[in-house]
Amino acid sequence: MKIEKHIAALLYRYQCVTLPGFGAFLTEVKTAQIDADTHTFYPPKKLISFNANVKNNDGLLASHIALQEKISYDDAVAVLAHTAEVWQAKLQANESIFIKNLGSITANSEGNAVFTPDTPVNYLTDSFGLGSVLSPAIIREDLQLEKQVAEEEIPVIAFTSKKRNYAYLKYAAVFIVALGIGGAGFKVYRGQEAVTQTLLVEKAVQEKVHSKIQQATFFIETPLPAVHLSVKDNKELKTPYHIVAGAFRNEANAEKAFKQLTRLGYDAKRLSINKFGLYPVLYGSFATYAEAQQHMNEIHKNHNKEAWLLIKEL
Fold first, then answer.
1. What is the distance between the alpha carbons of residues 180 and 174, in angstroms, rounded to a whole number?
2. What distance in Å separates the CA atoms of residue 311 and residue 242, rounded to the nearest whole number?
3. Same domain membership, residue 11 and residue 116
4. For the chain, how many structural domains are there in total?
5. Are 285 and 245 in contact (CB under 8 A)?
6. Which of 140, 175, 253, 276 has the most Cβ atoms closer than 10 angstroms to its Cβ?
7. Please, are residues 264 and 303 in contact by the beta-carbon 8 Å criterion?
8. What is the pLDDT of residue 137?
């Protein structure tokens, strides 16, 4: 059974996918980028990383394999345990583990796992169908210099002609100017007259309106009491970022973990059974990624190093 295809399928929807006994694959969204040297635009994508310290079984991968391969949950857990043992043995023998569409894992001189991502697939569903775009550089030429050169190359040709008497043109110009001034003056006069008429009509209408208002106010003997309307703000703050303490197959264990977190002062939550047959228990839910990440760091430090972040609108 190829475990890597199931891990890759879950990375499209979840931020953390754990292989029990081996480690967890994590995702982080990287915004769109531009390479100024090659003039290439890259769409947003998910960056894949690996954390060898997160090894506990959260039930996500095992439930997915059981559903897809049509086997029992216990058989899926056994398959994962065997895969983890094989991969650990390869690392101890200084062999590299190549995981298709994810990357490779090797052991360094200190025996720690080193992950090198190799993701030709973009696991960010919002960028589905988007690829890199190569845009040619824009070259701006100095047109001002070309204009000056062109002007210098224009030949100057002198013409000679007999001097003629154009005195009558002066009188025609004077007549045209006087005609233009008269037309402009008449236009201004008509415009002012139209404005004056408009103001008179608006004033008359306003006086009639005030008169109607006064009459209506005068004849109302028993006005209705004022009605006060209460407006309820139905806008709820969305909290799509959840810190998961664990997912339990036994509902009693989920209730026990929920009560324990509540006693410790966390705003714990219990979710209903999911499609994998598990009961998730949350430390709390938050409105922003930054707030959730801050609380998760505190939980890793003080309470549970294996808590993970789920991004989903419930």
1. 10
2. 6
3. yes
4. 3
5. no
6. 276
7. yes
8. 67
148 lies in some domain? no
Q: Which amino acid is at 29?
A: V
Over residues 119-139, mean pLDDT: 71
Tokens of 237: 């703050």
Which CATH number goes with the domain that contains 253?
A: 3.30.70.1070
Q: Which of 80, 108, 134 is the last residue of a domain?
A: 134
Domain that holds residue 184: 175-211
DSSP conformation letters of the chain: --HHHHHHHHHTT-SEEEETTTEEEEEEEE--EEETTTTEEE--EEEEEEETT--S--SHHHHHHHHHHT--HHHHHHHHHHHHHHHHHHHHTT--EEETTTEEEEE-TTS-EEEEE---S---GGGTT---EE-PPP----HHHHHHHHHHHSPP----------HHHHHHHHHHHHHHHHHHHHHHHHHHHHHHHHHHHHHHHHHHHHHHHHHHHHH-SSPPPP-PPPPP---PPP--EEEEEEEESSHHHHHHHHHHHHHTT---EEPPP-TTS-EEEEEEEESSHHHHHHHHHHHHHHT-TT-EEEE---
Span 243-300, pLDDT tens digits = 999 989 999 999 999 999 999 999 999 998 888 889 999 999 999 999 999 999 999 9
Residue 158 scores a pLDDT above 50:
no
User: Is it the case that residue 203 has pLDDT exceeding 70?
Assistant: no
- Greatest pairwise CA separation for the chain in angstroms: 116
Answer whether residue 221 is part of any domain.
no
Residue pLDDT, tens place only, 231-243: 444 456 788 899 9
149 within a domain of the structure (yes/no): no
| pTM for this predicted structure | 0.41
- The token pair that represents 82 in the structure block: 């065997």
